[in-house]
Amino acid sequence: MSFETILYEEDGPIGWLTLNRPDDGNMFTPQMCHEIRDCINEVRRETRTRVLVITGAGEKFFCIGGRKEGMEDTLLYAGVLPTLEMYESIDKLQKPVIASVNGYAVGGGNVLQVVCDLTIAKESAVFRQVGPMMGSFDAGYGTWYLEDLVGKKKAKEMWMLNPRLSAREALAIGLINRVVPDASLREETRKMALEVGERGAFALASIKGAFNARHGGVSGLARVAHDLLLRPYLESEESHELGEAFRAKRKPDPGKFGR
Question: What is the number of alpha carbons within 13 Å of residue 97 lying toward its C-beta?
């Protein structure tokens, strides 16, 4: 896959997606949002990759938010930075997604790591929400998912007082999973990804689907039912008997139901 604002490479069962705008804090642009979405959707359609890692280029920034320049001057969706495209694609992906935070994760960058299934960060990483300080907010993934991680009071503190958190502070409140020395981030991320990749792919997909169903409403429930439960049912004796009876225009044999 070839992109302009991100990099993608396969490393055995690991897919590495790198936000590649280091001279601008790896900030989202409309093009980057769509490229991340498209890349993840491609990963969803293949079986080589067991785990996806999202990180930032360079040594200073994971991602510090988004650039809105170049969008249409409209109140409709074309005038909104399409970050939801990325977040939804991470939720829909049946494979675990690990955020490897290599620097500042601020604003939309922090929301991005929050949405990922696991987060590993280097010691010098920084986490912060700054929306109300600069005339913005994320009243969705950035609030609900953050509350799930750190609790309502702490999530409101992050959004209303905008504290700057070190990696150790983020670990202590449950915002991230693991902190490693700066020089070891790539190696330790790879170890984590390989360990996750050894787990059962269908079991992991089922677990992720169950977690996401809580916030997903009908979409979340449909993901579990359609993506995970439908295929085994289609291969069951009950499904085969019903299909054969329908095509033969006969009554099905109930004795084969539920077997």
Answer: 28
What would the DSSP string read from start to end of 216-255?
HHHHHHHIIIIIIIHHHHHTSHHHHHHHHHHHHTS---GG
Residue 11, CA distances (Å) to 2, 52, 117, 130, 180 in order = 16, 10, 19, 35, 21
Domain boundaries 6-197, CATH class: alpha beta
Among residues 104, 82, 102, 86, the alpha carbon closest in space to that of 25 is found at: 104
Around Cβ 129, how many Cβ atoms within 10 Å? 31
Amino acid symbol at 49: T
Q: pTM, whole model, 2 decimals?
A: 0.90
Nearest to 62 by CA among 3, 97, 133, 111: 111
Burial string for 189-202 (b: 16+ CB within 10 Å, else e) reads bbebbeebbeeeee
Q: For the segment 40-71, what is each residue's pLDDT rounded down to a tens digit? A: 999 999 999 999 999 999 999 999 988 877 76
Which of 259, 199, 161, 191 minimizes the C-alpha distance to 50? 199
Tell me the pLDDT band of 133, cut-offs 50, 70 and 90.
confident
Contact indicator for 115, 87 with CB cutoff of 8 Å: yes
For the chain, the structural domain boundaries read 6-197, 201-250
Q: What is the dihedral of CA 71, 72, 77, 82, to 10 degrees?
A: -10
